[in-house]
Write a structure and sequence with these properties.
about 170 residues, mainly alpha, 7 helices
Length: about 170
């Protein structure tokens, strides 16, 4: 066990990527609409970050607000909040709340020049670890509820109309 921790710490980005892709694949395979949408939003967050670094180079700006990461986090926030308020799930609201923390980290960095670079990094990176764990738990709970109670609503009643009208019926279960 003691050999695993240094490995995970040395390769935490790669480990997180593998876990995220695995959880997102599980969401697409076994999840309902909210799980699929959340998995896709988290994949967007990851692949937008990879695209950003492919274009602008590796590294994170910690001494001032990182505008690229702030933009990626803000666009993801919009998706997470739409999913959170539309889904018939509680964990999607928690995932949206964690994304609010990530976006507020960028705002705090911009407003407080004396903010520690480590605090900034933790505030906008750490929520993603919890979001992946919450999605994994949400998939597990969804499967458990299906086995115990059978089919149930994925979205709140008012949200189904805009999903169907937007031709996103694969998200509606």
């Amino acid at each position: 066990m003691t050999e695993i921790l240094p490995f995970v710490l040395d390769y935490r980005d790669e480990v997180q990527f593998v876990i995220l892709v695995s959880v997102a694949a599980a969401a697409l395979r076994w999840g309902a609409g909210p799980e699929r949408a959340t998995g896709l939003a988290l994949l967007y967050l990851e692949f937008a970050d990879h695209a950003y670094h492919a274009i602008f180079g590796p590294g994170i700006e910690l001494l001032r607000m990182d505008l690229g990461h702030a933009t990626i986090d803000a666009t993801t926030l919009v998706a997470m909040l739409l999913i959170g308020v539309s889904a018939n799930r509680m964990y999607t609201l928690w995932i949206g709340a964690l994304q609010i923390i990530a976006v507020q980290a960028h705002l705090a960095r911009d407003l407080a020049s004396g903010m520690s670079p480590i605090a900034y990094a933790i505030m906008f990176i750490a929520p993603s670890y919890f979001q992946i764990a919450l999605l994994a738990g949400g998939i597990w709970r969804h499967r458990r509820r299906l086995q115990k109670y059978g089919t149930y609503r994925s979205w709140r009643n008012s949200s189904n109309r805009w999903l169907v009208n937007a031709r996103l019926s694969w998200l509606v279960d």
